[in-house]
Amino acid sequence: MLKNYLKIAFRNVKRNLGFFTLNFIGLYISVVVCLLIALIILHETSFDKRNNASVSIYRVVNHSTSATGTNYSAVTPYPLATALRAALPDEKLISQIHFQKDDIISFGNKKFKESNVVFADSVFSKLFPQIVKQGNIQRALGEPGYAVLTEKTAHKYFGKADAMGKRIKLDNFMDLEVAAVVADAPANSHLQYNMLVSYRSLDPRLIGGLPFDQWGLNASGYTYIGLSGENKVARTQTILASIAAKYVNKDKAEATSEYKLQPLPDIHFNQLYNNNPYYTVNYTYLYLLAAIGLFLILAACINYTNLSTALAVKKSKEVGVRKTMGATRMHLIKQFLTETFLLTAIVIFAAALSVRLFLPSLNNFLDKNIPLNWLTYKSAILLVGLWLTISLLSGVYPAFVLSGFNPIAALKSKISAPKASVVNLRRGLVIFQFLTAQILIIGAIVVAKQMAFIQSTPLGFNKQQVLDISLPENKPEQLQALRAQLFNIPGISSVSLSLGAPVSDNNANTGFNLKEKYTISKLDVGIKAADKDYLGTYGLKLAAGRWFDESDERKVASTVPDSLKQYSFILNETAVKALGFANPQDVLGKYVTFGMNDISAPVIGVVKDYHVASLHEAVKPVLMVEFPFFYYNLGIKFSGAYTASTLTAVEKAWTSVYPNFLFEKNFLDEHVASLYKEEKRTQQLFNIFTFLSIIINVLGLVGLLSFMVEQKTKEIGIRKVLGASVKDISVILSKDFLRLIVIAFLIAAPVAWFIMNKWLNNFAYRTSISWWVFAVSVAAAMTVTCVAVGFQTIRAAVSNPIKALRSE
Predict the structure, then answer these.
(1) Which of 626, 502, 661 has its CA nearest to residue 106?
(2) Largest CB tally within 10 Å, which of 181, 469, 642, 655?
(3) Is 0.90 topped by the overall pTM?
(4) Half-sphere exposure in the Cβ direction for 435 (13 Å, CA)
């Protein structure tokens, strides 16, 4: 019986090739997108779930509270692990790591820029097991002077040669021997690494010479602990509270720091904490992707349902003949479902093959490493589940409609139009298609509007024609030599030394307040170490007072003993308000103390507020100080359009001072643009999904209208004989769809407003959702619909009415 069903199904596919093609294209597009979205969701939800189930791993995080609010950080002080081991001697799975985002690796005459270098102790490999390819990882991480390379890194450095025993140098001062090679870090881990270095090799020079034994130092240290049992979690939490009270909050009137245990699987989805070594994702983002995939699948299934019910008239005689020959309704249902299952099986097979071609582009676009393996049980469940779901959604209703025809009426050709219930259902399904399309159109417009707002919003500094270069060392004689050479290059108007540009990855935060209030209350403030040329290089604007000058610079020079250094501070307007002053002039001359060695100094100037982060965040208090110890960035302002020879000259000057390091440049405008790469991806995704949704809808409209025209051939012929114009007939055939668009818009508008308003709430500075956004959406939907149905309606309207009425 099944063989017979399949044979008939293949014949029907050949007989109604146009119907099959329209449905195949729509289903194929939606299934490919759905499979790609499913792979993204499966990848994201698999993060940090490969660990030993008998032990739960936690990361220790820091909740720091001040008068300006609470800061949630994943970074903890370096002595914390030692204190935990002393307080919990029976717990053996306590690990302290140091994470380096970027480093320079050199050996021989070769230099490499390496990212994600982790300084780890011997416990690390027990909490995060590695697949060892060569060597002894316990020895490598247990003794100083050793490094562990991943396979990818070892191949990058040494090609096919054996990496074991090779010597490399990190940051031009740390000699390391390769003692092991391990498999690459899992793509679904929150902690990515390309190289592991023994924690005992950690050197203060990696963080500017600051000692690692300070409890007030929060740089790039992370603490992990493995526990078994809920009672141990509660006990550890109590120990952490006592450690914070003893070492961090001991001289403070109120507890300002609390250490909490964060479960490992929570890290990837918790965006509350900053300083994460890898990206985090919001569940809302995954829900949105899943909803879009579902909408596209439903749109394609709706096309199938609509076209199948519209095709019912052509199949009515077939149904009548089969019922007359003894076929039951169940036989017909099985036959029609077989056709649907056959079509969807072909679609699923073609889509599964195609995903392998599209996935590399998707990984490149999303900057991820999503794997693909159709041989796993999860993949099999996904494909089979999708096949059954689409087949049933698409085929059940048409099968019941077609199998329910009265055989006598069907054979007498009295089935000329579908029932009212079928028509109403079809209209409802079309409304749903238009609704989802208009939500996506509105979303795409709002995202584009916010991106335009971001690009046009003044940042409070100049980002054009400014080049930032990182400095590996900041010895005074090196800085002096480099500045002298740069000023000899034509086209350079100013050069500034600092911790970083106004918007930079190099940031420092501490507490500050008026000198007399500092011991009682500390306010959060961002620190910008900057020299006398910073103002002009980055185009900041003074609101009161003055900027640093040469006399200020001499007072804090490295040759001046620390006890004799005389600092001065410049605040931004937000910092002035945080101190309680309404007028910037009022704070001038006041002494302020900040947390770096509790230095007190007078305020000599106030700059107008400028952004130190993306527009996601509101402007925060900033304190600027001449602090040569933190000068690890060189800002170069060009006077006009720079040329390739200018950049070559800059690189040559830098290399002459730092011959053993890699030259890295970063244009400030490009860095600012990179802050919004996720939003740029969101914009592109909305555009892609909107386009695909429109394509699927158009395919459905073209197919549906072709059957409508066929049903109304005689009506059109009569109207033409009675004098109807092409325009009149086009309006008659199109108006029903336009009415459905308006109904869909009335539903889509509030839904889209709610979703996009929630998305915009992620920005401290945001655009508004104007009325014209909705007007453009409905106009775009109407235009696309008119274009889609235009060809069919015009062809029907200009056809010869004699041919349509010849059989009457």
Answers:
(1) 661
(2) 181
(3) no
(4) 16
